[in-house]
Amino acid sequence: MVEVVFPLPMFPLQSVLFPGIVLPLHVFEPRYQQLIKDLSSGPSNFGVVLIARGSEVGGGDQRCEVGTMARLAERITLDDGTSVILAVGVSRIRVRNWLPDDPYPLALVEDLFDPVPQGDEFPELVADLEKRLRYLLLLKDEIAMSSEIPVQIALSSDRIEALWQMCAVAPIPVLDQQNLLCQDEPVRRAEMLGGLIDDAISLFEGQLRD
Is the whole model's pTM more than 0.85, yes or no? Predict the structure, then answer.
């Protein structure tokens, strides 16, 4: 397969975006306002990567290599000149090289493609994950004594999309989310998420017993 590397404007964040997931952002820094302006008048795709260490503001941050290409779906300009946008994760990407800011971050990236799962193992994994995730969210709701995260989440009928949705909804640390994004095989990603859900279930069940 011929390797295709292409330039992409980048938006480093302190959160992980998964393919198919909607990302709301309040854009106030001047260089990122320029990014959104450029996206509104040209190609609407940009990259999102997790800041692994440090703060993006002022530079000096360390950024993860694997991220997600996002598409600008909606933009609203506020009275103070800042913007509120909605972006949608499209596909996984890998940063091959960071370019000089112009004025916002730019990188050379490549697309990352997942193999299509074969056989009955993957659908069974996803169905089992959904049951365990719903139980985990019930436990979390019970501990929080609120309904901040609805248990009645609506998952896509497409199992790949449903898995990404569960990765986004599961109450797990951001670095675990990044590890899920980095996993190249959907079956392995589902198994990894299952382990994280089981760990969280054990934690929450322990808190309820105390």
Answer: yes
